[in-house]
Every structure is written in structure tokens, then in C-alpha cells.
Design a protein that fits this description.
Layout lengths: L1 H12 L20 E8 L2 E15 L2 E12 L1 H6 L2 E10 L5 E10 L2 E10 L4 E6 L4 E6 L5 E2 L2 H9 L10 E7 L5 E16 L2 E10 L13 E6 L6 E7 L4 E10 L12
Amino acid sequence: MKKIYLAILFLVFTSFNSAENNGAKKNSFAAGEWFKFRIHYGFLNASYATLNLKETTLNGNEVYHVKGYGETTGMARWFFKVEDNYESYFDKKTIKPYKFIRKIDEGGYTKDIEIDFDHDNNKAVVKDHKHNKTHVLKTPDNIQDLLSAFYYLRNNYDVKSIKKGDEITLDLLFEEDETFKFKLKFLGRETTRTKFGKVRCLKFRPYVQSGRVFKEEESLTLWVSDDDNKVPIRIKADLAIGSLKADLEAFKGLKHQFKIEVDQ
């Protein structure tokens, strides 16, 4: 389930914001935004994942607080019970993460990790609450965590001028002991049919590690709405065993109008 939930959040990473005509950036999100995704594994409705964004303060800083939650449901829960909780606190202006929390229970496999970022000194303090251990990692400039990356990319990349074949990279800290380069390739624009209607989308290919989970590096394809919100719409994945599909199931609190094409 960890890899399935991570695949859903890969979809989230690809949300980019377009610049205003006058050159100023237009924020693509606001407090109160909420997404729910339905994840299918083969014929099973395997799980749901949600993202919920609020405003708060942390150590005297005004921050956004986002919670990500995923769980198996229905028949899938009989075979493998999963509850995954992710949280991120990030600066409202710079979108740099201050704290990342990961609490998971996947069929008895558990983790309870808290990461505090020190951007001035390019390091992260990692607390393993399960084993009562703490260690420090060196981090590159502009490091992001799994959730803050979603919002950072939405506000820092102009997709109006993006060309087919263009690639984007980002330094990411997800596991408690290493950072990695997330790379994404733009495949073009297309209109996608959803439960809400037809939505004009940006289509991407994130590069993943082939082997135990994914068939090959290009096993993931994802779509986000080509509007000011950059709503994550759909992801498809070819796994080492079977295939996965995830769709946006519900949303609320969008900052901008969600554009849906009407059949003629």
C-alpha cells in the first residue's frame, strides 16, 4: 500500500501553476482545499486517499498544514489492512517545508517518523519515534517533502510555455534516510473524460524505479487539469503484478473555477 499511496502522490507532484498575463504569479490553492481519490487495483476498489489543506502557525511562523490519509477498503481490506497518515507544515510564502510527519500501519508494518527541516544549514533532523532514535541528514537547497512538493510545484512552474518532451526535476526527502531526484516528463495536452465531465488536461510521465513494484521506469502516466487550479485528475500504473488506476473522486474549496467541457 505504501507504494500505491506514493504513486497517487506522484500524481499530485505534477500540479503546476501558470503565470498571470502581467507576469505576476497566481496562487493555485488556498486553505480549505480538499481532494479525495479512489484507487482501483484490477477489479478491486482498493482504497481511498485524501488531501486536506488548512492554515495554522508553527513556532511563530504562518504556515499551511496539509494532511494526507490513505486506507484500504472493502474486499481489499480483508486481504491487507492499511492506514497511512502523512502531514506537512510549510511556509505560506516560500512553500519550504518546516515539518513532515509519516505514521503508517500496513498489515502490521509500522513507521512513526517526524522530520524537522533546517534550511539555513541544509539539514534535516529525523526522529524515529518507534525506535526512539534521532539522526541528522544533509539536504540540498530547496528540498521538499512528499506533500509540500505538491504545492511548491503548483506555484513555481509556468506551464503555458512548456513543450512536449520537457523535463522537470525536484529534490525530495521521503524516506527517513535519503533524498532523491524526482524527474517528470511532459507528454502533451489532451481532453480526459471524468465523472465530472470532460476536462482538458496536462499529461506527464514521472520516472520511477523499475523492479519490485513497477514494471519499468516509464510505468506511470498521470493527468492534471489544464487550468489555474491544476487539479490532479487521474493516474495509471503498470505494476510488477497487475495494474493500478486512480481517479479524482471528490473535491471542494478550489480557489479557481474548475473548467469542464460540455459535450456538443
